[in-house]
Structure formats: C-alpha cells, structure tokens
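mind reviewing both lines:
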Amino acid sequence: MKKSRYSFSFVVGLLAMVGLFGCNQETPAEKAKAAAASGSAATQAAGQAAVDSIKTPMDQARQTESVLERSAEQRAAEAKKLTE
C-alpha cells in the first residue's frame, strides 16, 4: 500500500514539474518578437543574403521551366501539323 502511495506521489510530482517547465516556454510569436528586437543589422543582412542565394536559382529554374513548356507546346503543334 505504501509503495503505491509513493508511486502516485512521484507521478503527481513529476507531472507538476513538467507543467511548471511547460508554462515557462515561449510561444513562437514571442520568440520572433524577441529575435526581431535583439536582431542587429548584420544578422538581418546575413538573413537577406541567405534568402537571395536561394531565390536566384529558383528564379532561374522557373525561367527554364517556362522555356521547356513553350518548347513542348511547339513540338506538340508541329507533331499535330505533321499528322494532319
């Protein structure tokens, strides 16, 4: 009987500790506000450079995709013309 009381007390205490630590966690919005408030110009410049380094290849890939689509449409039109 004493063992089950100790186990129950341990579980309740453990849940209380987890609850207390969980309440102290910041929400993502609070973290973003804190990061924006403490962010320096160098950090923002580095972040923008990272975005630009990803953006440029993606723009080039989109342009290539549109060229390939136009080429496929032209090929399809030529093939249709030949079969008529």
Remarks:
- The mean pLDDT is 78.
